[in-house]
């Protein structure tokens, strides 16, 4: 096995689910498995956690089809944008459609009628994200249309929060480049106005869901019938300012091993571009067989650190495609010694800061050539 790999703790994943479920009860849980389960490996995560959840969410039709190919039986909502020509795949693979426009809803109903099948649908509204979905002020005609779709099962209705991590109580809400952010409470208010359509007509309301990870923590009135944890499911908080009220922990540890160890004299630059060199005295430089092709961002050059044999050391010299170097000073570090790139006391937030990006991008950029190794499975 390759010495660089991502270790995924399935026991901790189950504990995360239990913590989320207790927090949102009696709401159901739809963990998002898009982007290869946020980098943790869709196959290993989905097969293990299926008995403990109510629904799965993905972004792409192809992701839903892949889950079915793994033998997953749980309901699967495809939450991303859908092309009309993809609709037959929803019937073929028993996937739930996010109907985000009148044209898509009409095409789905026509297809279901022509094939004499019923398609499960969640109506998608846009209450402030401006990505996909029908605006709340255009909701009524769309809802009326849905009532006439006799070949569809309108199972759910939902929208997506644009700034769920914003804490509204106390203090001033920040503006982004003088643009006033859309607050979670405003989106919830708009969504509740959409839902009054059913109340006014004494109709049963479809399954309601609005809360992503930030909403789960920050918008308790929005838990409704189901929540959609993304990064929180994997143990990472969606915002730095959110109070750590939920006992979830990261499930991934990125490990490698020292592949080379040598003494480098002062004045001998390390790696491409000659961006670092030892000053004053010789130092031991060790090589880690991992690089930016694995998701260890080149932008972290001369900022990152790793843990080898329980001690923290700085990464030095430009990070290469397949390798990077670490300055271990006078310590005796040998080939084969374990190195921790993420985990222990190196957080995903630190990697994000070093790379100048978000925790989401760090997690979803573990490349396919980094093996996922699953530990602690509960039978």
Give the SSE map.
Elements: E1 5-9, H1 10-24, E2 28-29, H2 34-38, H3 42-49, E3 56-58, H4 61-69, E4 76-78, H5 87-92, E5 96-99, H6 102-115, E6 119-126, E7 134-135, H7 139-147, E8 152-158, H8 184-200, E9 207-209, H9 213-218, E10 226-227, E11 252-257, E12 260-264, E13 283-288, E14 305-308, E15 311-316, E16 324-329, E17 338-342, H10 348-355, H11 359-364, E18 372-375
Parallel strand pairs: 1-18, 2-10, 3-4, 4-5, 5-6, 6-7, 6-8, 8-9
Antiparallel strand pairs: 1-11, 11-17, 12-13, 13-16, 14-15, 14-17, 15-16
Describe this structure in words.
This protein has 379 residues and is α/β, with parallel strands linked by helices. It has two domains: 10-234, Alanine racemase (TIM Barrel, Alpha-Beta Barrel), CATH 3.20.20; 252-346, Lyase, Ornithine Decarboxylase, Chain A, domain 1. Helix content is 27%, strand content 21%. The chain contains eleven helices and 18 strands. It has helices spanning 10-24, 34-38, 42-49, 61-69, 87-92, 102-115, 139-147, 184-200, 213-218, 348-355, 359-364; strands spanning 5-9, 28-29, 56-58, 76-78, 96-99, 119-126, 134-135, 152-158, 207-209, 226-227, 252-257, 260-264, 283-288, 305-308, 311-316, 324-329, 338-342, 372-375. The strands form three sheets. It has a nine-stranded mixed sheet with strand order 12-13-16-15-14-17-11-1-18. Strands 3, 4, 5, 6, 7, 8 and 9 form a seven-stranded parallel sheet that branches. Strands 2-10 form a two-stranded parallel sheet. Strand 3 (56-58), helix 4 and strand 4 form a beta-alpha-beta unit. The longest helix has 17 residues, at 184-200. It starts with a strand and ends with a strand. The model has no long low-confidence stretch (mean pLDDT 96).
